[in-house]
Amino acid sequence: MRLLYAADMTLASLEQVDPEIHSHVLAEERREHEKLRMIPSENYAPPAVMAACGSVLNNKYSEGYAGRRYYEGQAEIDAVERLACERLETLFGVDHANVQPYSGSPANLAVYLAFAKPGDTVMGMGLPSGGHLTHGWKVSISGKFFNAVQYGVKREDQRIDFDQVATLAREHRPKLMFCGATAYPRTIDFPRFAEIARDVGAVLVADIAHISGLVAGGAHPSPVGHAGVITSTTHKTFRGPRGGMILCDAEHKKAIDRAVFPGLQGGPHNGTTAGIAVAAKLASTEDFRTYAAAVIANARALAESLLEGGFDLVTGGTDNHLILADLTAQGVPGKVAAQALDRAGIVTNYNSVPFDPRKPFDPSGLRLGTPALTSRGLGVAEMKRVGAWMAEVVAAPEDEARIAAIAAEVREMLEDFPAPGLEHLAG
Ligand code: DSN
């Protein structure tokens, strides 16, 4: 009975109580089994992580921090949160971890609260260049409440314009400087950002939401020792639950903890905290290092295959888990391509490219990545096939017969690569 707890028993009870939601869950399981999930911020959380998230820890309120709570009955919650923090501190080699942010955006908001006042100057990479909304983009609270200065990439090679970063920093002297991105396919040069931030007295914040799994697995340089504050989601390449974390130097511990609670949030989501602890344990293994290296090897192989298929890739390729394709030369809008690819069983997202003349809701680009495919065990050989299929679909996004045939080929290939937690659907 205990073995059935995490999956079958809870699903059976869901079916009994709410057949509509149950049917949507099953349909989503099928979709995640049958399609190539290539949105670079998505992955398959291992069943052990899912079990921790869906456990009774969900039922407990625990405002405060381990040993300093405002509610009784915290013996297990304190132990779980301490384990999550200690594992992350060891894994990343940092002084302090806070695992209470509900996700990446609240983690970043807590950082603003810790170090800046409304109207203060902050700096980050602009959304059109691949930065995140919360790095000061005008529609986000970070751009509305702060004087946000935005740097970007160079027109000639689409790489971060460090001359511009240095010039803007000297001119505006921001309190906070964000580095890290959501649509940038190259290594983030943390030492270079640190030098610029140091020169102007800014706190450097590395948002490693996309690459925290690669950093933990030794496949991307670490910001530790360069950025005094590091934020991340816990569900992308890190392969944990939907959540957030802040890692920091000892000198920032108090400010960060106060900003998260009571500054920004109430009770932490304890099931998620447990899921983060499990993910951190898994990320400390040799298997995880192998996975992180394979994510990048797969992205490089896929980029090569796409280049052979006539795609124009932003920066000409990738160093990490993601690829940004500019479809301008193919004459196909990103949205049209993404929708046709989805019908072919290849799930990506349409995305702006740097200096995009089109609007964000109908942009020129396509963003894709390899974390979820790598978690299923697909390798370089499969990436070649995926790249070839993508080229075919984008060349003829209205050829529904061929698109349906590719969807069938995708399904057939994926039968040999059961997704973690969805093995029951294979065969
Ligand atoms: N939505 C995340 C991503 O897809 O990159 C960022 O918030």
Q: Which secondary structure elements does this structure contain, and how are they paired or packed?
A:
Layout: H1 5-17, H2 19-34, E1 36-37, H3 47-53, E2 64-65, E3 68-69, H4 75-92, E4 96-98, H5 104-115, E5 121-125, H6 141-144, E6 147-151, H7 162-172, E7 176-179, H8 190-200, E8 203-207, H9 212-216, E9 229-233, E10 244-248, H10 253-264, H11 270-283, H12 286-308, E11 312-313, E12 322-326, H13 334-343, E13 346-347, E14 349-351, E15 365-369, H14 371-375, H15 380-395, H16 400-414
Structural notes for this entry:
The structure is a single chain. With 427 residues, this protein is an alpha/beta fold. It has 2 domains: 56-283, Type I PLP-dependent aspartate aminotransferase-like (Major domain) (Aspartate Aminotransferase, domain 2); 297-425, Aspartate Aminotransferase, domain 1, CATH 3.90.1150. Helices cover 45% and strands 13% of the residues. It is built from 16 helices and 15 strands. Helix 5 packs across helix 10 (253-264) and helix 7 (162-172) packs parallel to helix 8. D-serine is lined by residues 41, 104, 132, 182.
